[in-house]
Write a structure and sequence with these properties.
Number of helices: 5
Distance between the termini: 54 Å
Strand content: 25-35%
Helix content: under 10%
Structural class: mainly beta
Largest sheet: 5 strands, antiparallel
């Protein structure tokens, strides 16, 4: 009902506006933004509009968020409008730009469209884009898969075509005949996401700069997640790397435009992954060299802003965007004077902005996906609404006099924590108080270690590991609408404070809203954050954190730094079961990372066995099992059924040799635990030198032990002492072994029906489970809302179990609880 009312109101407003202005929307008031349309469908977040003078229209192509209510979309899907749409200023509306030969048929029913891979209504942009040919499947009109474009598109006047570089594909859309063609270059830049293309009319070339989500060789051979400057020459139809001694720092989500009057490309700001940027760079078309602006002031740091060039004034105009907040200001840069000045107008706020200028009409058209003013994206949901705004530029009155000036400085993405570590006498006092508190803890009760000197953010679905050499919890990860920085927070137990060695962690670009299937590595060559699970553990041999975090790559992209790593087509099972997109549009290479808690340095150690993703700390070093939980899902995220009658999978124990950079397989052959998943938990029994694994079998309640002496798996089949007759517990990811009690302790599965105080103990000596209630000393939001935001470790120095819980929701702060567990406690 609300949607229908909104549609009626929108149509009525537009009708009145057009009736009052029969010569078109160019007669809107000058130097102010006016909303023209709000189409309830047609939102294309992460894709850019471009103006084509010969057609007097703005064109939009790219990923279409057709149905956000269908959280796991299929690659082949119905869409509400055609892939390419055009906005005519004279008509004041968007319309499908259908192939002429299919105009009549597709006006009645649109063909299905391909999106390389979607999750929660979005694609990543790093998936391979395929120009699907003239087949019955797509009814004879070649079209590329709908992918995210960002600003990797330009208009090429000589051929009257829009040229796109997305998902590794370089393709042209020819405006007149409404047809696509693959430019099929012999060489190609890395398949970056979030970069920008600009047309160099002086040389008839395209310049690419920016973008990320790749894995390239950087300075001194270090792995980095960006590339340099590339040029596509129409003369030889090929891409060429442009070697320059100086160039801008890596960035995403900012548009580069060509200033034809001064023959330079201009680039401002962007998302530096660790910082929002505010610098201005110029690429001289004559010398093909970059130089930085020396302007003393200008716009504040931002990304996601629109950028257009106005040939009448010679200005590069930027507006809106965001840093830690949404921005609405507008600015103009004059390259001849190397000066910024503030313009009139409050740019509309939207989750993703794109705009272009029709110079003769003095019209800037802006598109965003916004239902109402101030809208931002909900977690894992992009609005399908497409809102269109217009701004008529009048140079005589557009400059804002006496505008405030500010230096152009970058802004760290991570906001201040609100608390700082103390030193000297304050720290000494806090350490003494913590020592007294830990010594006087009651038995068998969770006690909240309140008021640390510094706090840490919730790591959603976060696991943790314990650094026994430094006496601290290492806490990493985050996704699913929670914290997304890739730094490691460490809780120093004796000092009662969280520490972070990384002052500027890297975050994914805003479009993914806390991470969805991110590709490559970060700009600094670090792993992207993801659900913590048990993918990392502390290694007492190297005194480093060890993590197995696969690197996802676009199909067809095999970067040199990873070339010798084994290839795992994680969707190979999907390709023959679903047969929706074949070959898969991306793949992964399993790799091993190390993190030094002293220097906060990540290093790519070497390859990892296929599917290795669940690790545990032992006296021998880090050991792991190839749980390979993604193999239990199809490519749309649904669980495959499992039966004990299926052929057994090879689930093996591996030991990492850090010095040799290799994993050594310890177990051989069957039997081994089956049907493992992301909730599978492991702990190391230090008394018997064996691994305890919980979470196999049809109900994922089986318990297995791997004995180091025999190098073999053994299913234990424990009984349940208490409550008598009840079923054994289902795995819940978090577990510890407590040497003094000789108990394997694990949480009950997280659910609305079970309290976090409910736990299960496994007595190794009697091979039996028993259910225990371990109360909390006080009720907090962290307890009520933790769900999967919990991590449990064992501190051998203090003989304590430590529990890290997420705060009030996914955006809260982490809380630490301590447990002095004793077997004298009688189970219920």
């Amino acid at each position: 009902m609300k949607k229908n009312l909104l549609l009626v109101c929108t149509i009525f407003w537009v009708g009145i506006a057009l009736a009052a202005q029969p010569q078109g929307i160019v007669h809107i008031p000058p130097n102010q933004w006016v909303q023209l349309l709000q189409d309830l469908e047609g939102g294309r977040p992460g894709s850019a509009i471009r103006y084509v003078p010969e057609a007097d229209a703005f064109f939009l192509w790219g990923f279409m968020n057709a149905n956000p209510d269908l959280l796991q979309e299929q690659p082949l899907m119905e869409v509400p409008e055609y892939d390419m749409v055009a906005f005519s200023p004279a008509e004041g509306r968007w319309s499908s730009h259908l192939p002429r030969s299919w105009d009549e048929a597709w006006s009645r029913k649109l063909p299905l469209a391909y999106s390389p891979r979607t999750y929660a209504g979005k694609t990543t942009g790093s998936e391979r884009t395929v120009l699907r040919g003239a087949t019955d499947e797509i009814e004879g009109a070649p079209r590329p898969d709908l992918n995210i474009v960002f600003d990797q598109v330009i208009y090429h006047p000589p051929s009257q075509s829009l040229v796109y570089f997305t998902g590794g594909l370089t393709a042209a859309y020819h405006i007149k005949n409404r047809r696509w063609s693959d430019l099929d270059p012999r060489h190609s830049p890395p398949p970056v996401v979030g970069g920008s293309l600009a047309y160099d009319s002086l040389h008839d070339e395209i310049v690419l700069f920016g973008g990320g989500h790749v894995a390239e060789p950087g300075p001194n051979g270090k792995l980095v997640g960006f590339t340099g400057t590339w040029v596509f020459r129409f003369q030889d139809q090929d891409w060429h790397r442009q070697e320059t001694s100086v160039q801008p720092s890596p960035r995403m989500n900012t548009r580069m435009v060509c200033d034809t009057r001064n023959q330079v490309l201009v680039l401002f700001g962007g998302d530096g992954q660790s910082n929002y940027l505010a610098d201005t760079w110029l690429y001289d078309l004559k010398s093909r060299l970059w130089r930085v602006s020396t302007a003393s002031s200008g716009p504040e740091a931002r990304a996601g802003h629109f950028t257009v060039y106005d040939p009448e004034t010679g200005w590069v105009i930027v507006g809106g965007g965001y840093n830690r907040r949404d921005l609405t200001d507008m600015w103009a840069y004059d390259a001849a004077k190397d000066r910024w000045q503030r313009l009139k107008g409050e740019t509309p706020v939207g989750f993703y902005l794109t705009a272009d200028l029709a110079a003769q009409q003095r019209l800037i058209l802006l598109v965003t996906s916004t239902r109402k003013p101030g809208d931002t994206m909900d977690c894992n949901v992009l609005f399908p609404v497409r809102t269109t705004y217009a701004y008529r530029l009048d140079r005589r009155t557009v400059v804002l006099e006496h505008s405030p000036t500010q230096p152009q400085t970058s802004l760290p993405k991570r906001p201040p924590t609100g608390a700082t570590e103390t030193t000297g006498a304050q720290e000494s006092t806090r350490r003494q108080a913590q020592a007294r508190r830990l010594a006087s803890l009651p038995e068998n009760k969770w006690v909240h270690l309140v008021d640390p000197a510094r706090v840490a953010p919730t790591r959603t679905w976060g696991s943790a590991t314990f650094d026994m050499d430094r006496g601290q919890i290492l806490y990493w990860g985050g996704e699913h609408c929670g914290y997304e920085g890739n730094d490691v927070d460490a809780y120093d137990v004796a000092a009662h404070t969280w520490r972070s060695m990384d002052a500027s962690p890297e975050y994914p670009e805003r479009l993914w809203n806390h991470g969805v299937r991110l590709s490559g590595v970060t700009f600094q060559g670090k792993p992207w954050t993801v659900h913590g699970r048990k993918m990392y553990a502390y290694d007492p041999v190297s005194r480093k954190l060890i993590m197995v975090r696969p690197i996802r790559l676009t199909t067809g992209y095999d970067p040199e730094p990873l070339r010798l790593f084994p290839v795992v087509l994680t969707s190979e099972y999907q390709s023959f079961r679903d047969a929706l997109v074949n070959p898969p549009s991306s793949y992964v290479k399993h790799v091993t990372w190390t993190y030094d808690p002293d220097s906060a340095r990540w290093e790519l150690l070497g390859p990892a066995p296929r599917g290795l993703d669940t690790l545990v700390t032992t006296r021998h070093g880090v050991m792991g099992v190839n749980v390979d939980w993604p193999s239990r899902l199809n490519d749309s995220g649904y669980l495959f059924p499992w039966s004990p009658t299926q052929p057994p999978e090879d689930k093996a124990i591996y030991l990492l040799d850090v010095a040799g950079k290799t994993w050594k397989r310890l177990s051989q052959g069957q039997p081994s635990p089956q049907n493992l998943y992301e909730q599978t938990s492991m702990a190391y029994d230090s008394k018997r030198d064996q691994i305890i694994l919980h979470g196999a079998g049809q109900n994922r309640d089986e318990l297995w032990i791997f004995e180091m002496t025999t190098k073999s798996w053994r299913q234990m089949k424990p009984g349940v002492l208490l409550p008598k007759g009840s079923a054994p517990p289902v795995c819940s990811r978090e577990s510890v072994y407590i040497p003094d009690a000789d108990v394997f302790l694990t949480c009950s599965p997280a659910s609305a029906k079970q309290s976090l105080s409910e736990m299960w103990g496994y007595r190794i000596d009697t091979n039996s489970w028993y259910h225990v209630q371990i109360p909390f000393d006080l009720e907090t939001d962290a307890i009520r809302h933790a769900n999967e935001n919990r991590a449990m470790v064992y501190d051998p120095q203090h003989g304590l179990v430590l529990l890290v819980l997420g705060g009030d929701g996914n955006e809260g702060k982490a809380s630490v609880y301590a447990l002095k567990y004793r077997n004298s406690f009688r189970p219920d």
